[in-house]
Amino acid sequence: MQTLHNSAESLTEVNRSKFITYLVPINAFEGLQERLKAENPKANHVVYALRYLNEYGQVVENSSGSGEPKGCAGVPALNVLRGEEMINCAVLIVRYFGGIKLGTGGMARAYAQAVKEVLKTADILPYKNQVSHTFETGYSDVDRILYCLKQLEIVKYDRKFGVEGVIWSIEGDEEKLEAFLNTM
Questions:
Q1: Measured in Å, how far apart are the chain's first and last C-alpha atoms?
Q2: Predicted local distance difference test score (pLDDT) of residue 167
Q3: pLDDT of amino acid 129
Q4: Of 21, 33, 70, 95, which has the fewest beta carbons less than 10 angstroms from its beta carbon?
């Protein structure tokens, strides 16, 4: 599986219809469709497709054709995300009608092409499962723990100093956390 490092944007033109495509991390998706509709009031459609992993490790998928004929917009976009094994990302496509009807097959190909174009410009990384772990240490172990976290490049951590010791909460790649726990 692959995931997105940063948002990406591209413009695709098919038979004078313009497809402005936005590829965003899943946490940036909420509210973006409404914002794009407000920013592009003359756009005919704002289509989306998304894929993400839920808390149980299951892939959740959704798409919307935004009034385009059924199966001609959101589904082809989602199929491209599936084919590229993209996860934890969403693609939104703003379409301006160019005056030439594409037909259902042409429209499906155009939306798929728009997603493929934005994927070419995107900064894509291999997906790594993020996990968290909480543990407690004595005060004498704080420097050693900080050194191990730095060596393994685990940068998301929180520590709470209590009466009897330090409670740590760390988050990062599953592989790195396993390596960290093996050094303990």
A1: 30
A2: 93
A3: 82
A4: 70
State whether 120 and 135 are in the same domain: no
Q: How far apart are CA 99 and CA 58, in angstroms?
A: 41
Q: How far is CA 184 from CA 57, 60, 135, 177, 179, in A?
A: 27, 35, 11, 11, 9
Pair type for strands 17-25 and 45-53: unpaired
Length of the chain: 184
**In this predicted structure, what is the pLDDT of residue 17?**
85
User: What was the pLDDT predicted at 74?
Assistant: 87
Q: What is the DSSP string of 93-153?
A: EEEE--SS--HHHHHHHHHHHHHHHHHHHS-EEE---EEEEEEEE-GGGHHHHHHHHHHTT
**Could you give phi then psi for residue 138, rounded to 5 degrees?**
-80, 170
User: Helix (H, G, I), strand (E, B), or coil: what is residue 44?
Assistant: coil
Are the C-beta atoms of residues 40 and 11 closer than 8 Å to each other? no
Answer with the one of 89, 110, 126 that is the final residue of a domain.
Answer: 126
What pLDDT score was predicted for residue 134? 93
pLDDT score at 44? 81
Q: What is the pTM of this model?
A: 0.75
Question: Do both 57 and 45 map to the same domain?
Answer: yes
Distance CA 153, CA 173 (A): 10
Query: Which residues, in sequence order, are bridge partners of residue 46?
Result: 94
